């Protein structure tokens, strides 16, 4: 809208913006594409965290998510040195994840984030449920 020089031009631009679910989908598509464009292990870190938070039937404490993400499939013991730093998880998720005010519960930032990720799970996180099952079996 910054480049529009008249009220009519602004109205036309606003009319072209997506609305409803399409608006959310467009915003979340862009966010996930930015996550996929990150350097190094940041993309995988974010996608793993988002997969756990999307597929889980309950909320995670920060430590629970770190433990889940630190599980090495096939290993017999947990190695705390393999737990990802919670600040790295937050940073890699580019605003899609937040920690509640009490500082212990980590969750998706909004219910629409959950809805979007559930609808597009196979697109962005193929094999997420199998990965989580492998982690759970190893953890036991």
Automatic annotation (TrEMBL):
Coiled coil: none annotated. It holds the Pfam family WHD_GPIID. Signal peptide: none annotated. Residues 43-118 form the GPI inositol-deacylase winged helix domain. InterPro entries: GPIID_WHD (IPR054471). It comes from the Eukaryota. This is GPI inositol-deacylase winged helix domain-containing protein.
């Amino acid at each position: 809208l910054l480049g529009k020089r008249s009220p009519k031009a602004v109205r036309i631009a606003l009319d072209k913006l997506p609305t409803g679910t399409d608006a959310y989908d467009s915003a979340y598509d862009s966010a996930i594409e930015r996550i996929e464009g990150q350097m190094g292990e940041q993309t995988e870190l974010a996608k793993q965290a988002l997969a756990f938070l999307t597929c889980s039937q309950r909320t995670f404490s920060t430590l629970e998510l770190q433990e889940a993400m630190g599980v090495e499939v096939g290993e017999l013991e947990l190695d705390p040195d393999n737990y990802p730093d919670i600040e790295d998880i937050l940073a890699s998720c580019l605003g899609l994840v937040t920690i509640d005010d009490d500082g212990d519960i980590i969750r998706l930032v909004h219910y629409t984030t959950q809805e979007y990720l559930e609808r597009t799970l196979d697109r962005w996180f193929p094999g997420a449920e199998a990965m989580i099952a492998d982690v759970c079996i190893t953890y036991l």
